[in-house]
Structure formats: C-alpha cells, structure tokens
C-alpha cells in the first residue's frame, strides 16, 4: 500500500512539472532562447542575451514580437532560425557575411555534415584508420 502511495505522489509531482513547463509552441522570452542556445559567459556561466540582440540587427530574417516594455518574444520559426545562425557561426566557424548569404538564399539548409558533403564519411573513416595505425605503431 505504501508502495502505491509513493508512486502516486511521484506521478502527481511529475504531472505538476509537466503542466508548469511551457508548451513547445509557446512564445519564449529572450532569456529562455539564450538557455536553449546555451549562450553563456565562459567565466561565470550567466546567460548572455546581447548576442541574440546583435543577431537580430545583423539578420533581418529574425523578427521577434516586441511587446510593451520592449520585451522580446520568439516563436518556433525564429528559434529555429537562431539555432541555424548559432550552428553556422559558432560550430561551423562561418562569418556573418557567409551566414547572410545562406539565409538570403531560399534553398533549405541541411546542417548535417555528412549529407552536406563537407566531410565525406569514407574519407573520414580512412583518415581515422590511418591515425589509429600510427598510434598503435608508436605504442610498440
């Protein structure tokens, strides 16, 4: 009986957390978007929102809803666009000018490296095998 009561309490707590969490399609504040993109200062791990504001100025495609008090609210479309910008700038090392060219092009963006052929899987596997063989020969 205690076992059932304990699990019912855990289930109730889980349902409360689910109800309190924002819907995926709900508008997000700039702080929530910064958390989604993992934009933090390196030294103290606090959230940085100025990067998103800068990207808004640079990339005209990013258009959040600005309500009273200049509070920004982002929909799914803008969040996905910010994820693409973040990936291309921070992870792919592209320039702002290069990202602008990609975003101005109306073709869909495929961010997967293998399907994008920026790194061919077969070449990558061969290079890893060669490096592995060199490391094994050094250990002997």
Walkthrough of the structure:
The chain has helices at residues 2-20, 30-36, 50-58, 76-91, 96-104, 113-116, 121-139; strands at 28-29, 65-67, 71-74. With 140 residues, the chain is mainly alpha-helical. It contains seven helices and three strands. The model is unreliable at 113-117 (pLDDT under 50). The chain has two domains: 25-109, Multidrug-efflux Transporter Regulator, Chain: A, Domain 2 (Orthogonal Bundle), CATH 1.10.1660.10; 113-140. A hairpin with a 3-residue loop joins strand 2 and strand 3. The protein is extended. A three-stranded antiparallel beta sheet has the order 1-3-2.
Question: How would you concisely characterize the structure shown here?
Answer:
The protein is built from seven helices and three strands; from the N terminus they run αβααββαααα. It is mainly α and about 140 residues long.
Identify the notable features of this structure and list them briefly.
140 residues, mainly alpha, Multidrug-efflux Transporter Regulator, Chain: A, Domain 2, 2 domains, three-stranded antiparallel beta sheet, 59% helix, extended
């Amino acid at each position: 009986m205690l076992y059932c009561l304990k699990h019912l309490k855990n289930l109730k707590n889980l349902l409360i957390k689910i109800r309190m969490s924002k819907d995926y399609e709900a508008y997000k504040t700039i702080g929530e978007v910064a958390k989604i993109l993992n934009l933090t200062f390196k030294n103290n791990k606090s959230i940085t929102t100025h990067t998103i504001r800068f990207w808004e100025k640079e990339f005209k495609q990013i258009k959040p809803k600005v309500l009273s008090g200049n509070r920004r609210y982002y929909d799914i479309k803008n969040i996905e666009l910010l994820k693409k910008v973040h990936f291309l700038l921070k992870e792919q090392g592209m320039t702002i000018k290069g990202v602008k060219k990609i975003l101005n092009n109306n073709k869909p963006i495929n961010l997967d490296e293998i399907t994008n052929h920026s790194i061919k899987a077969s070449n990558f596997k061969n290079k890893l095998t060669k490096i592995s063989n060199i490391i094994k020969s050094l250990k002997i």
